[in-house]
Design brief:
Distance between the termini: 33 Å
Order of helices and strands: HHEHEHEEH
Strand content: 5-15%
CATH topology: Rossmann fold
CATH class: Alpha Beta
Helix content: 40-55%
Strand order of the largest sheet: 3-2-1-4
Bound molecules: S-adenosylmethionine
């Protein structure tokens, strides 16, 4: 499967730079964590207890880790193209004791390395505007998402 190197994406100049990426992670951690808490509230409100969850453009991992913490049964995957952010997210998962249920993988939002209908919940925060082909990213979201059961 074709994978776009991060530096070839539209905003890749930010996320190919380790220092800028680490700085981004530091400044967005609290907001990203809060977004995960809010996603969890929305899922609870709909009485959804997700099995497999995918976060596309997972960045520093804070959003997905907050969500993982709220759903003890969930198995969560975050994908991103930025190695610095993937490393930060993996470290946080380990520090929070969530590394058995959440993993962070290098993958392109527009060419996801997952089977059709393999996730119960797919979300993405602040990433669609960054990919070169947002329509393809949305079509990948739809492809890997299971059909709603109701
Ligand atoms: C603005 S950040 C948002 C990160 C995180 N979702 C948050 O809310 O803090 C966008 C993220 O998308 C990632 N990204 C950009 N293009 C991507 C692509 N084609 N596939 C996967 N991730 C990508 C970047 O590396 C970055 O981590």
């Amino acid at each position: 499967m074709k994978r776009t190197p991060i530096h070839e994406t539209r905003f890749g100049w930010i996320f190919q730079d380790a220092e800028l990426s680490a700085d981004y992670a530091k400044h967005h951690a609290a907001g990203a964590h809060k977004a995960g808490e809010q996603f969890a509230i929305l899922l609870n409100r709909e009485n959804r207890t997700p099995g497999r969850v995918l976060d596309i453009g997972s960045g520093s991992g804070d959003t997905l880790l907050a969500l993982t913490g709220r759903f003890p049964e969930a198995e969560c995957v975050g994908v991103d193209l930025c190695q610095t952010l993937l490393d930060i997210a993996r470290r946080k998962a380990f520090e929070q004791g969530l590394n058995s249920r959440v993993r962070f993988e290098e993958a392109d939002a527009t060419a996801l390395p997952f089977d059709d209908a393999s996730f119960d919940v797919v979300f993405s925060q602040d990433t669609l505007h960054m990919v070169d082909d947002p329509v393809r990213m949305l079509s990948e979201c739809a492809r890997v998402l299971k059909a709603a059961s109701r």
